[in-house]
Amino acid sequence: MTGRSVPEWEGATPDAAIPPRVKLRIWEHHEGRCYLTGRKIMPGDPYDFDHITALCNGGRHAESNLAPVLREAHKAKTADDRAMKAKVDRVRKKHLGLTPPSRMPGSKNSKIKRKINGQTVDRLTGEPIGGYRRG
């Protein structure tokens, strides 16, 4: 026995509604405080129940991963979570080779390069492309 008389609630799906009895247990566990700011949530304050570890970052839709949070702090945390997930996805795509390399003119990935004297040459063959001005 784990010492807990009530089993932990876990949503059947990631968007399953949190039952009122579970919300009450979460509220009491956090003593009615916003877990991000530490401020006591007063009657009339807009608040939500947020995933401590976001679902998109591998968190569970379970009672132990939920906490009350003031709405303004929740908006800021959600924006940070989404930005972090987007960054992770970009890096993963790059490392897996799913993102084509940059074709910025003059970069090492471009087909041409400009020499110090101003001449433009084909990077593969070394042949001059077009004319160039002499100083």
Number of strands: 4
Distance between the first and last residues' Cα = 86 Å
| CATH fold type of the largest domain | His-Me finger endonuclease fold
Low-pLDDT stretches: none
Q: What is the string of SSEs from the N terminus onward?
A: HEEHEE
Second CATH tier, the architecture of the largest domain = 3-Layer(aba) Sandwich
CATH class of the largest domain: Alpha Beta
**Assembly type:** single chain
The domain tally reads 2
The average pLDDT score comes to 88
Main beta sheet strand tally, sense and closure: 2 strands, antiparallel
- Could you say which structural class the secondary elements and strand pairing correspond to? alpha+beta
**Percentage of residues in strands:** 5-15%
Spatial ordering of strands, largest sheet: 1-2
Level of helix content? Answer: 25-40%
Q: What global shape is seen?
A: elongated
- Per DSSP, the total helix count is 2
Radius of gyration: 27 Å
InterPro entries: HNH_nuc
Organism: Pseudochelatococcus contaminans
Region (Disordered): 93-135
Protein name: HNH endonuclease
Give an account of the 3D structure.
The mean pLDDT is 88. The chain has helices at residues 20-29, 71-96, and strands at residues 47-51, 66-70, 112-114, 120-122. With 135 residues, it is of the alpha+beta class. Strand 3 and strand 4 form a beta hairpin. The strands form two sheets. Strands 1-2 form a two-stranded antiparallel sheet. It has two domains: 20-96, 3-Layer(aba) Sandwich (His-Me finger endonuclease fold), CATH 3.40.1800; 102-135, no CATH class. Residues 93-135 are annotated as: Disordered. InterPro entries: HNH_nuc. This is HNH endonuclease.
